[in-house]
Amino acid sequence: MRPETDNRSAARQVTDALTRVAYRGAYSLAMAYWFVRRPATQGVFVAVWCGQRVLLLQNSYKRLFSMPGGGAHPGESHVQTGTRELREEVGLSVEAASLRPAFDVEDRGEFKRDHVYFLELEVKHEPPLSIDHREVVWADFIDLEAALRLPLAPTLRAYLTHRLEQTHG
User: Fold this and answer.
1) HSE value, Cβ hemisphere, 13 Å, CA-based, for 16
2) Residue 70, Cβ neighbours under 10 Å: how many?
3) Separation of alpha carbons 67 and 44, rounded Å
4) What average pLDDT score do residues 26-46 get?
5) Nearest to 118 by CA among 160, 168, 75, 87
6) Domain coordinates in residue numbering, the chain
7) Exposed/middle/buried for residue 64 (C-beta within 10 Å: 0-12, 13-18, 19+)
8) Residues sharing a CB contact under 8 Å with residue 36, sequence separation 6 or more, in sequence order
9) Domain 3-168, CATH homologous superfamily name and number
10) Would you say residue 28 has pLDDT above 90?
11) How many CA atoms does the CB half-sphere of 50 hold within 13 Å?
12) What is the distance between the alpha carbons of residues 54 and 164, in angstroms, rounded to a whole number?
């Protein structure tokens, strides 16, 4: 490997680490804002399923496992939010028609009233994932029952429990 490649890699690692610190700081500031304002928000998670395995990820600024997702931009539909978040967080580009509504729940965690919509995407084979190592530091497909043993946000746990009940009921 050439020395300048090594330097670029080291510089990238430092930049990634500093960006993760910035994400944690921004998340802390957002939590403080939500504590004061108690806003009503809407968010979307996309459950990508390959058989009984579901795509989970780990954000750099939260300890709980999650799925690709986030808040809707103004004027953005749930499906548009879902396709954008899949592309941004794990590098998956999908057709809007491939996402189907699956579940929704209101969450009062994080000091806000968050209406969370779950969309589902079925894939035949686990697609290659591309994460930035800044916002998202890990992503992989996990067996549903193993996923339920991980530390999950309450909304995610409610969705996965619902899915397990549908599968076994």
Assistant:
1) 15
2) 18
3) 9
4) 86
5) 160
6) 3-168
7) middle
8) none
9) Nucleoside Triphosphate Pyrophosphohydrolase (3.90.79.10)
10) no
11) 13
12) 12
